[in-house]
């Protein structure tokens, strides 16, 4: 079984109240692949420029991530994003987005990438997401992410992409912006009527919620004392969530399987934010993930006890 992802592979310049990094390896597909590589063989699709250095290739190949479909464009520049966090990392401002090699990228997938069992369309232009989606007709589960930029400037293309997937993963504000609904529950209901069978609302430091026709499942974020850099947390979450589904090829993608997947996504994302960029996840271990999933489970399980209400 294998998992294919298309999305940005980037150099990020990031400033948070706790420090800054200039041109560190980032990108939605990068963070996703690192997390998902704990569950399955991951194939990354996307272009990089000839400024993409050996150290970045090495990180991109962590835990056997397959980079056969990462095209190095001669004379091109790698996608670049610059952002700054304010208010104790609770709000983010995008200062620069340079699509560079993504601007004219025509994805041609290898047979192995096309034959994926599970596909993730990480954040990038929705046209590009769809061109990859169309090549992976046999995938049993397709999920996608997006962001406010594409909701604002490529709305109708984004709508077409959404209609072609099983699961939409967006943060609360994006869900509300996309649908014009006042809450993520209302937004999720609307998106479920467009075709996808699952919607995940990412709520940053508050956690994440899953919405399907069967109901709602929600988890808080893993409680951390220090958050250094949230960049890539959403993609890392998606890598754990989608990776867990890829690791269970014989199970129907039910509300119950998706709920378990949500716990793995939540646990892995909590490591990502403890250091800058990919720094923490490249040296993460399966045992560390398992320990946080177990603590999350203990933290969230409760008994309602005997009825003790006056009324
Ligand atoms: P997240 O913090 O999970 O929202 O993802 C941050 C990552 O998304 C960074 O590593 C950026 O390189 C990447 N990114 C930022 N803006 C865009 C964009 N417009 N399209 C694709 N990827 C982006």
Structural class based on helices, strands and sheet pairing: alpha/beta
Strand order of the largest sheet: 5-4-1-8-9-10-11-12-13
How many structural domains can be distinguished in the coordinates? 1
- Rough outline: globular
Strand content: 15-25%
Overall pLDDT metric: 96
Bound molecules: adenosine monophosphate
Q: Number of helical segments?
A: 11
Based on the structure given, which CATH architecture is correct?
A: 3-Layer(aba) Sandwich
Can you identify the CATH class? Alpha Beta
Radius of gyration, taken over Cα atoms and rounded to an integer in Å: 19 Å
Q: Tell me the total number of β-strands.
A: 13
End-to-end gap:
55 Å
The CATH topology comes to: UDP-N-acetylmuramoyl-L-alanine:D-glutamate ligase
Descriptive report:
With 311 residues, the chain is an alpha/beta fold. The strands form 2 sheets. A 9-stranded mixed β-sheet has the order 5-4-1-8-9-10-11-12-13, sandwiched between helices. The model has no long low-confidence stretch (mean pLDDT 96). It has helices at 28-36, 54-60, 111-114, 126-135, 148-153, 155-163, 172-179, 184-192, 233-246, 255-272, 286-300; strands at residues 2-6, 10-16, 19-26, 41-49, 70-73, 79-86, 91-98, 118-121, 141-144, 167-171, 198-202, 208-212, 215-219. The longest helix is centred in the C-terminal third of the chain and has 18 residues, at 255-272. Helix 7 crosses helix 8, helix 9 (233-246) packs antiparallel against helix 10 and helix 10 (255-272) crosses helix 11. It has a single domain (3-300), classed as UDP-N-acetylmuramoyl-L-alanine:D-glutamate ligase, CATH 3.40.1190.20. The structure holds adenosine monophosphate (AMP). Adenosine monophosphate is lined by residues 8, 10, 12, 26-28, 81, 97, 123-124, 147, 149, 231-235. Adenosine monophosphate (AMP) binds next to strand 2 and helix 9.
């Amino acid at each position: 079984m294998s998992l294919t992802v298309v999305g940005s592979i980037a150099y990020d310049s990031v400033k948070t109240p706790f420090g800054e990094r200039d041109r560190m390896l980032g990108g939605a597909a990068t963070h996703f692949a690192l997390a998902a590589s704990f569950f399955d063989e991951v194939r990354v699709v996307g272009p990089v420029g000839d400024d993409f250095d050996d150290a970045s290739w090495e990180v991109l190949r962590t835990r056997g991530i397959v980079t056969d479909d990462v095209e190095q464009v001669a004379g091109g520049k790698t996608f670049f994003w610059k952002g700054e966090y304010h208010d104790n990392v609770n709000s983010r401002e995008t200062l620069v987005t340079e699509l560079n090699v993504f601007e004219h990228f025509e994805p041609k997938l290898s047979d192995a990438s096309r034959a994926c069992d599970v596909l993730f369309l990480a954040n990038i232009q929705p046209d590009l997401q769809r061109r990859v989606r169309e090549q992976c007709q046999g995938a049993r589960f397709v999920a996608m992410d997006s962001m406010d930029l594409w909701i604002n400037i490529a709305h109708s293309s984004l709508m077409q992409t959404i209609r072609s997937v099983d699961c939409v993963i967006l943060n609360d504000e994006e869900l509300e912006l996309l649908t014009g609904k006042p809450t993520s529950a209302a937004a999720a209901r609307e998106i479920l009527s467009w075709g996808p069978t699952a919607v995940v609302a990412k709520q940053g430091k508050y956690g994440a919620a899953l919405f399907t026709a069967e109901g709602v499942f929600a988890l808080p974020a893993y409680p951390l004392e220090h958050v250094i850099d949230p960049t890539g947390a959403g993609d890392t979450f998606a890598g754990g969530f989608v990776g867990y589904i890829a690791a269970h090829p014989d199970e129907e993608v039910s509300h119950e399987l998706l709920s378990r997947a949500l716990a793995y996504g939540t646990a892995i994302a909590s490591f990502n934010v403890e250091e800058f960029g990919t720094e923490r996840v490249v040296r993460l271990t399966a045992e560390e993930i398992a320990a946080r999933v177990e603590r999350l489970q203990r933290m969230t399980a409760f008994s309602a006890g005997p009825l003790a209400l006056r009324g």
